Amino acid sequence: MSDALKDRLVSDWMEALKDYSLEEIQTAIKQIQADKPKDATNEEVVAKRIVANRGRKLRMLPKATQPAPEPETVTPEQKAKTEEILNSFLKRAPRNHAESVKQAGGEQ
């Protein structure tokens, strides 16, 4: 193989694997060679193995728990409006069963 062809191959591999660390590349190549020692490997196969290894590592991490939602804060204006509505309702509501029967037009 000519030096120019070797340089081109190295350049292609470097371009295809530039987003991965040297450790990831070496690990992937070792795994691929252990799985299929007689097969020629290429940069796409190495990249796929690295992505698969990353996925395996992510699945092994503990699941993140969702933080509890922050309780809604009630403004003084909202509190006053709520109290006003409740007080208005309570003033109109019967105080006991006899009163509710009377309001409904029934007899005691």
Report on this structure:
The chain is rod-shaped, with a radius of gyration of 37 Å. The chain has two domains: 3-60; 74-108. It is mainly alpha-helical and 108 residues long. The mean pLDDT is 83. It contains five helices and no strands.
In angstroms, what separates the terminal alpha carbons? 110 Å
From the spread of the alpha carbons, the general shape counts as rod-shaped
Percent range of helical residues: 55-70%
> What multimeric state do the chains show?
single chain
Radius of gyration: 37 Å
Domain count: the total is 2
Strand fraction: under 5%
> Strand pairing plus helix content: what structural class?
mainly alpha
Integer average pLDDT? 83
Q: How many strands, which pairing sense, and closed or not: the largest β-sheet?
A: none
Number of strands: 0
In the predicted model, the low-confidence regions spanning at least 5 consecutive residues are: none
| SSE ordering | HHHHH
How many separate helices?
Answer: 5
